[in-house]
Recover the amino acids of this structure.
């Protein structure tokens, strides 16, 4: 069942604000973790990837999970979730502590079975960290064509798995338009 746009916007804003606050308490300069650009981009990705959580699991049984279809590890293939833990949080303990203080998750799947589906604040924190790791600034709020290009360049993992920019735009208009 899809999450209401107003409710989801509120949850994304609150989670990003709390995450930024927790980062700053750890002494990390986190200006921009909570921003209109971040909220708008996360909502646009959620509209396309899971249709606002209508589909919490990737259609066809793939590794995508949750609001943003972030990939979990399967077998010997490291997913995006574990990659963030292994390559970002491992070297940024203050970030890991702030994220844990924001959403209560202390480790990736499979140690925290299905957190990418059951813990919405965790999904939002992980989505925000992933976008933070991208060197290019986020598009402005509601700049849908720039968001389409940003998603295609930085979020989309393969050429076939999640549609194209036309699908992204269609989903954006359906869920956010």
């Amino acid at each position: 069942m899809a999450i209401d746009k107003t409710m989801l916007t509120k949850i994304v804003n609150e989670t990003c604000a709390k995450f930024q606050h927790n980062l700053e308490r750890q002494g990390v300069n986190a200006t921009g973790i909570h921003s209109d650009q971040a909220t708008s981009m996360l909502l646009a990705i959620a509209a396309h990837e899971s249709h606002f959580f209508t589909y919490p699991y990737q259609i066809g049984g793939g590794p995508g999970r949750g609001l943003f279809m972030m990939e979990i590890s399967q077998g010997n293939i490291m997913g995006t979730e574990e990659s963030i833990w292994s390559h970002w949080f491992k070297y940024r303990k203050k970030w890991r502590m702030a994220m844990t203080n924001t959403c209560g998750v202390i480790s990736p799947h499979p140690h925290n079975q299905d957190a990418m589906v059951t813990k919405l604040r965790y999904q939002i924190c992980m989505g925000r960290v992933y976008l933070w790791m991208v060197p290019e600034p986020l598009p402005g709020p509601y700049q849908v064509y720039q968001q389409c290009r940003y998603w295609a360049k930085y979020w989309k993992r393969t050429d076939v798995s999640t549609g194209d920019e036309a699908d992204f735009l269609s989903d954006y208009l359906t869920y956010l338009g």
Remarks:
- The chain has one domain: 5-176.
- Residues 5-25 form the longest helix (21 residues).
- The first strand starts at residue 64 and ends at 65.
